[in-house]
Fold this sequence. Notes:
The structure holds 2 protein chains of 2 kinds. By secondary structure, chain A is mainly alpha-helical. Chain A has one domain (3-209). Chain A has helices at 3-24, 30-35, 42-53, 56-69, 74-98, 103-110, 114-147, 151-201, 206-209. In chain A, helix 3 packs across helix 8 (151-201), helix 6 (103-110) packs antiparallel against helix 7 (114-147) and helix 7 (114-147) packs across helix 8 (151-201). The radius of gyration of chain A is 20 Å and the shape is globular. By secondary structure, chain B is mainly α. Chain B has 4 helices and 2 strands; from the N terminus they run H-H-H-E-E-H. In chain B, strands 1-2 form a two-stranded antiparallel ribbon. In chain B, helix 2 packs antiparallel against helix 4. The radius of gyration of chain B is 18 Å and the shape is elongated. The chains are: A mainly alpha, B mainly alpha. The interface between A and B is medium-sized, with 25 and 26 residues. Chain B: The chain crosses the membrane at residues 28-46, 58-78. Chain B: Residues 14-90 form the Sodium symporter small subunit domain. Chain B: Keywords: Membrane, Transmembrane, Transmembrane helix. Chain B: This is DUF4212 domain-containing protein. Chain B: Pfam families: DUF4212 (PF13937).
Amino acid sequence: MDQFTINVLFVGASFALYIGIAVWARAGSTSEFYAASRGVHPVTNGMATAADWMSAASFISMAGLIAFTGYDNSSYLMGWTGGYVLLALLLAPYLRKFGKFTVPEFIGDRFYSKPARLVAVVCLIVASVTYVIGQMTGVGVAFGRFLEISNTAGLLIGACVVFAYAVFGGMKGVTYTQVAQYCVLITAYTIPAVFISLQLTGNPIPGLGLFGEHQASGEPLW
Amino acid sequence: MAERTNDGAAGSGKAYWTANLRVIKWSLVIWAVVSFGFGILLRPLLSGIEVGGTDLGFWFAQQGSILVFLALIFFYAWRMNKLDREHGVDEE
């Protein structure tokens, strides 16, 4: 079996898994679509959130940026992760208790103001588009490479798959697809990190290998 | 949240909110100090302190702040659940 066949098999299998999950978890009501009927276990939800953190952009670009620039790109790590603290402390609990589904809806109703709602929508669109540009570029690069097609074609294939499972399954479909992605990603992240750390520092735990010395030269890594 | 907080104990809603704000305030102070503080602004101050071969500022920027963030989120969830129960506004 040549490399291309293996690629198609693996990419096809993961596509089939994600769409299968979306069909299995398809939404029947608004509450199911936006909030998965609020019936997702916290650990499952955490796995889905973690899959959001370990997205295409962090897998393809951020790892490389941090490896090359070291301390200077710590801001990505801190900003990226610190945002979750703001979300958990300032927004998520109130959104949940208020019983609304989307952030603009919550802000509009909470402050009795249509302009506030509009501002929230604009913020949401700006943030989402910025995020999606990065992610979809990553999708294009990844699928273009694996399926040996142009980046644009790869991007379109990826977009269709995401569209399919997001529209069928709503939040429930997205959550369980993300859980599947989490299992795939955490394996794909950990294995290379362990072996790179082992080769560079002789320490199999990447988080501790950071403090070690480069084995070949005896210099500290950072 | 508002409807259920106000019935019964009239002062409870206000006390609950004050306690809530206190938890958020101190969590955010810690959040800012470990990342922006230790990781960036105070890094020169911490550069003399070594942790396993690297300086403390660098460690906070790369790993420490993230571990603290995780701890903060878990602490917040635990503290707020406790607070919800004390003031009778929990979801059960």
